[in-house]
Amino acid sequence: MRFDLTSFITLALLAVPALSAPAPQRPGKPGKPGKPDQNACTNPQERKEWRQLSIPQRVDFLNAVRCLHQIPATRNNEYPGTGSDYEAFTVQHKIQTPWVHYTGLFLPWHRLFLREFERSLQEKCGYQGALPYWDYTIDSGSGKNFTIESPVFHPEHGFGGNGEFDKNVHDILAAQGTPDFWGGGCVKTGPFKDMTFTVPQERYFNESTAPRCLKRNFFLAFTEWTTQDKEDAVYEQTNFEDMEFMLEGGHIPGQWAALHTGGHFIVGGLMPQGAYTTAGDVWTSSLEPLFYLHHANIDRVWNQWQIQNNSEHLWDIGLKTSPRADNVFGPNEDFNFVDAPVTHSTPVDLGAFGGARNQVAVGQLLDTRGGASPEGQKGVLCYKYSQPPKPARSS
Ligand SMILES: [Cu+2]
């Protein structure tokens, strides 16, 4: 199927495209080589692919997410619409969005964010497992149809299905010549069908806090972005900047296609200007429960790149603390970006989530198994990823 991607992008995940954006800047320094500290964490919890969990384990995870959504917000509750501790995560994501997307902090910040989410499920909702991931390459490629075949969308022990058909959305998109859609409305199946959110959409906090549903608009065509080829292309990169670009996707016309953008779009699809599915609003996409499985997969692929070839890239970092294209999230002057290289000593924090474990430096997040950086920064993580249920790579 052929279509013009850049015209789509004006509609969806990134509503303010800089189509004449300059070439990306890649001045960041690669990290020094170092060795993981094998003694730092002796029993890392294993994050498994969704279909590697037993059915009861899947249900446990889904119940834990629902539990977090029922706990009144203990953090960020001074922001209107922070209806639950689950939503407190999205408020934090929204507050930090411009600094942690299309910057060198995208991967480390989301790594810390996911770990705190996982910890909340464990500490507040009694969840025993690790955060699962969704390897959508298994569900992508010719002849595959994730909307029917993937256990991720199972109506009872998965995340439920597509949004209801919204004829208004369909007709607007059809008039724009986009491929066919059959969702766009509220999800009416699965464990999240009655979930509502009150965090306002997009970047502001003074907009509507009227409860809204989980919305999806499945888009099979974008699974060409979530194939094994796209994942393998990440592993072929030899420096952090190129790897990051290949994994996150660029804010550059013609360079959208990447696992990260793909994972958002295959679920969130495209919507008319001003309308969003849950996964399609970059500011609040973490309201979509699948966000956490999608980003765990992004984190897994980053980690796989880090540790391949005897951990040759474990300590690599780069890019800058400002976005690689101008005005990605609105006028740059709104955000007071600091235009500095991201290094091991660049701070990473989760704002109101507070505590020493959420106020760290990049070098403390690079080894998921908690190893100390070459500069002696103590690692704060202790997890690993399973080999996903597909043929193993040889590297
Ligand atoms: Cu994000």
TrEMBL record:
PROSITE patterns given in the database record: TYROSINASE_1
Descriptive protein name: Di-copper centre-containing protein
Residue ranges constituting the Tyrosinase copper-binding domain according to the UniProt record: 101-118
Xref: Gene3D superfamilies: Di-copper center containing domain from catechol oxidase (1.10.1280.10)
Organism: Ascobolus immersus RN42
Keyword flag Signal: yes
Region (Disordered): 22-46, 368-395
Signal peptide: 1-20
Record key words, sorted: Copper, Metal-binding, Signal
A GO molecular-function annotation: metal ion binding
InterPro entries referenced in this protein's UniProt entry, alphabetically: Di-copper_centre_dom_sf (IPR008922), Tyrosinase/Hemocyanin (IPR050316), Tyrosinase_Cu-bd (IPR002227)
The UniProt record lists the keyword Magnesium: no
